[in-house]
Amino acid sequence: MSKKQKNYRMSFHESDIEWLANEYKKRHSSDPSLALEDFALQYGVMAEQLGIYTHQQDDRYGNSVTLWHGTTASRAESILEEGFRSGKKSKHRIFFTKDPKFARRHAKGRAKQEQDQPAIIMCSIDLSRYNNHEWQKREVLILNYDFIESEVVKRVNNIRS
Description:
three-stranded antiparallel sheet, disordered N terminus, 6 helices, globular
């Protein structure tokens, strides 16, 4: 396989992702052993993208959506230990996005301000449990809470600057 083939990624419109997510739900209902990652690989799309629209079952909370939080490495460590806490400036709000690239940009900006390393956190958020929320420009989800448990964290990625 050439380098060009290895780095090739298909790009999908949001409507395509929604269609694929619906197809996955249909196939998964008839075959519960079908993993989202396998289905995504078959169609050349990132499982995280599909996870946003499929509302994958989370063992602890039920229907969940995959969201991302951009921050610094030291704050990510604190979130893993203590959970998400709203800051004084954020007025009881915790911010997430459905786009990991958006979280990455925010993390890099925050890290530069605080002279730290950037990090993004992948979370599985049950929007029926954390139902006091609002979308901002269809990109950012604001959860109106002072605290969200660290159990929602699925993965932390430190980013090299």
